[in-house]
Amino acid sequence: MRTRGxxxxxPASDEEAxxxxxxxxxxSIDERGEHVSLADVARTLNVTRQTxxxxxxxxxxxxxxxxxxxxxxxxxxxxxALRGIKDPATAMLExxxxxxxxxxxxxxxxxxLRAPRNAAFAEQVTLTNDTVRVLGRSILDRLxxxxxxxxxxxxxxxxxxxxxxxxxxxxxPPTGGSTELxxxxxxxxxPAVAALQRNPAATIQPD
Length: 207
Hints:
With about 210 residues, the chain is mainly α. It has helices spanning about 15-30, 40-45, 50-55, 60-70, 70-80, 90-100, 105-115, 130-140, 150-170, 175-200.
C-alpha cells in the first residue's frame, strides 16, 4: 500500500484505501456530477493521481466500482419493494420500472449503464460491461420468483430482456409519465417472459 499523502492520515490497509477512494469519488460525483475526473478525486484525498492508479487502472474502472458500490443500497430497496411478487412477468415489470424511475435521481445507476468515456459513443448506454450485467442479474436474483419453471437458457434471455429494455427506455424515454411507462413495459416484458416459461424446447434433449 502507498504510504504518502492522504492528508496525513494514511489508510491502515489496501481495503481501507479503496473504501476511502470510493467514498471520495462519491463525494466528487455529488458535488460535480457524473463528469468527475480522477484528478478531482485525488485532490479530495490529498494524494497524487498515481496513488489512485495503484488501485484503479483508469477513471472508468474507478467510476464503475463507485457506481456498483453506491447502488448496493438501491438493490436492497428494490428487494424490499418487490418482496412477495411471485409472478415472473409482474416482478420483472416492476423491477425494471423501479430502476427507470430511480435513474433520473441517481447518477450512480447512470454511470453503470453508460459506455466508457473513451468509447466511440461515450454517452450511450452499453450492455457490454460486466457491471451492467451485475445490475441486471441483481434484479433477477432479488425476486421471489421460482425460476426453476424456466429452462436454464431462459434466464440469460430474461437478463437480455432486462438490459435491452433499460437501454431502449434510457436512450429514448417514453412520453406520458409513469402510467404509460408501466403499460409499455407490460406490452414488452409480459409476453416475452410468458413465452420463455411455456417453451420447454431448451430443456428437451434429442434421443
